[in-house]
Amino acid sequence: MILDEHLALLARPYGFAPGDFEFLRSSQNHVYLVRHDGAKSILRVSKGRHRTRQDVEAELAFVEFLAARGVNVCSPVPALDGEDCVALSLDGDDHVVTCFEHAPGRKITPEDIAPPVYEKLGEMLAELHRHALHLPADHAAQARPHWQESRLLRQDMAELCGRLSPAFVERLTELMEKLRWLPVTPDSYGLVHADACLGNCFLDGDNLWIFDFDNCEHGHFAQDFATILYDSIYCRMLNQFADDGLNDRIAPLWAGLWRGYAKAGPLAAIDAFQLKHFFLLREAVIYIHYHRTLDLSAVPDSFKAGLEVMRKNVEDQAHQVDFERLVSLSQDEQISTVI
Known about the structure:
- The protein is of the alpha+beta class.
- It has 10 helices and 10 strands.
- Strands 1-2-3-5-4 form a 5-stranded antiparallel beta sheet, sandwiched between helices.
- Helix 5 (166-180) runs antiparallel to helix 8 (272-293).
- The radius of gyration is 20 Å and the shape is globular.
């Protein structure tokens, strides 16, 4: 969390007072719910973490580009001086502060976890990818990094030197090298959300809203599918450890996702190699994130055992998910949508 006296200084450019805040979480950023003048918004404070004001301005430019085209995203709320974000240095630490509209609706609950909500998520992903393809070459959002430059892979891994096994680091490096050789085509590569998951969505009646573009980057559209598969399907269907019924539970949710995407998404097919390897890359990122943010000496033994499975998956470049089956389901949904 941010010190109260620092938070007051960081929020002042937006006209917020100390009593307006409710702390929500600290992970990549420090995030607060703001209630001010009868309205709700989100204040995000990036402290260090290899973010510059230019990085954030490019992110906000992408969000504004999508909002202008009718996508259900949470637009930036400018500071009192009209700037989209504020950069301040406090006690030698650089801070970048942004404010966003609060998404309407509610969080996704366990009761929502069924094919219909994944179909909505697929439709949202199709919108994001379709509009990303039409981002002008000189647009400010183009300044976002490419996937292989991500701080989640580069700086975080470097900072954890000695806490990650040599085999994990070696295999992750090999995995990234494999993926860097993938062809970059104009219909399958562009700005991606890079953290698309139900945890970053609100449901407002029949409408889905998506937010938290903090990790958006230039990448393969397959990355967004791999992230959703890992965060919002695999992890939600996992009963602590993989069992014989895991892939049967995953299949209908994945089919719903692709059914929604196939209606208007630019990606006509998904490749099993890409899906598997970007999925393993996501697992590696989450594994690194846990080592960076958690006191692993204090977590339950069951959590430690789960971490060992994650480590082994990355080191062995293998997984319990049946990626070939998912690709086959994607093809079936694509054909049924066309017919």
